[in-house]
Amino acid sequence: MAPVVVVNVVGLTPRLLAHMPNVAKVGAAATLKPVLPAVTCTMQATLLTGAMPRDHGIVANGWYFRDLGEVFLWRQHNRLIQSEQLWDAVPGMRTANVCWWYAMGGSSDFIVTPRPVYYADGKKDQDCYTRPPSLHDDLVAELGEFPLFSYWGANANIASSKWIIAAARRILTRERPDLLMVYVPHLDYDLQRFGPDAPQAVAAAREVDAALAPLLREDATFVVVSEYGITNASRPVDVNRALRRAGLLEVYTQAGMEYLDPWASRAFAVSDHQIAHLYVRDPADLPRVRDIVAELPGVDEVLGQEGKARYGLDHDRAGDLVAVADPDAWFTYYYWLSDDRAPDFAKLVEIHRKPGYDPAELFMDPDDPFVKLRAGAALARKKLGFRYMMSVVPLDPAPVRGSHGRLPDTAADGPVLLGPFEGESYAATEFKGLLTQLLKG
SUPFAM superfamilies attached here (predicted)? Predict the structure, then answer.
């Protein structure tokens, strides 16, 4: 039986598929109904488990870990998913995971996932984690180092996706696993930078299609899926600043910089694209917090317990309230009221220290005339082995033009599923069952 290869082309919609002839050949395109929030970690967990967030526990790309008193985004341990996964659905099946999330500690026979190297002197290099460990050196010898500054950030480009696709092709041809799943991130970049209707979005779709062509020619049964569609959005909503002005969010100060103080705050938000999880320490404050957030321009609705249950988001990790943005709006994580009090990580690509998602990382500060010069100087210091700061990210989120997270208003703006399936529309929770049947033959 030919291997089954699942290609996750993040951000792929019916509109963009028209510009991707190689991908379109995989099969008829069915619409896919995402779960709330329609973000990477939640949707991938749903696709892998067939469960809603209330059951698998991945309520966002990150959340407030109440027992630790810390906000963490982009964790990688597979055990955070609390439901049985596709990797284990068929006994004896050999599997390969190339850059799907929550890979580390998973049961896959072959794993490749982004994992920067954090040196003791504070330097950082983009790299990947593999299992078996020997796979790392083999991939580097054949494909070169995992592309620096191309997976995310202002310089994000097609290079990382090409490397990931080549790694998947190498594993497919040499190891022949029964199931190989590969995540291709490139469409995420320019669709958030410029919006899905911009010429750059079409160009990105064509780039991904060309990069996938060699993999799609291999002897395998292919399935192409996406997690969400990105829609036009240009209105940032400063939810944490509103809570701070109301006296509910607190900060502490070090070296003249302000940091979110979740331990002392009566309420704060973990912003994630078009969704914000609102953590409220005292239930008596819930009505007030709901009213403050609901009145902000750009907020569509604020979900309480009943609303969370309606969307299958009623899990202990979720916020006490969950805010959903209007179609053209999204939530910032910003909590400082003056930019001269912002922490140093605010102007960096620093996805693990920011207590919320920051799409401004996709831009270099347009108000800094020396930003490219300073970026070049930082790279030069890095190449010479010195510590460096790539402090180029704007504190003004105005350049952002696309977002996702809320449920799509039309199927044309939602995710898709292509493969040997007969239906015209599927729920994301059906994906695991479809793949299990396909693997069983």
Answer: Alkaline phosphatase-like
Query: What are 67-84's pLDDT values in tens digits?
Result: 999 999 999 999 999 999
Closest to 353 (Cα-Cα) out of 73, 120, 153: 73
Domain 235-400 has CATH 3.40.640.10: no
CA distance 237 to 247: 18
Residue 104 has which token pair? Answer: 């580390």
Q: For 4-232+405-440, which CATH class?
A: alpha beta
> In terms of DSSP H, where are the helices of 302-370?
305-310
Any idea where the domains of the chain sit in the sequence?
A: 4-232+405-440, 235-400
Residue 234 has pLDDT above 90, yes or no: yes
Q: Name the more confident of 34 and 382.
A: 34
The half-sphere exposure of 191 on its side-chain side, counting CA atoms within 13 A, is 24
CA distance 46 to 346: 31
Structure tokens belonging to residue 280 = 């409220």
In 185-298, DSSP assigns E strands to 221-225, 231-232, 235-237, 251-254, 257-260, 267-272, 275-280
Q: How far apart are CA 106 and CA 189, in angstroms?
A: 27
Residue 174 CB neighbour total at 10 angstroms: 10
Reading phi first (left if > 0) and then psi (alpha if -120 to 50, else beta), residue 312 is in: left
Q: Enter the tokens of residue 173.
A: 């041809």
Q: What is the pTM of this model?
A: 0.96
Residue 330, SS3?
A: strand
The CA-atom distances, in angstroms, between 344 and each of 69, 250, 398 are 21, 18, 20
Judged by DSSP in three states, 192 sits in helix
Block residue for tokens 């998913």: 81
Instruction: Reduce the secondary structure of 114-177 to three states and give it as a string.
Output: ECCEECCCCCEECCEEEECCHHHHHHHHHHCCCCCCCCCCCCCCHHHHHHHHHHHHHHHHHHCC
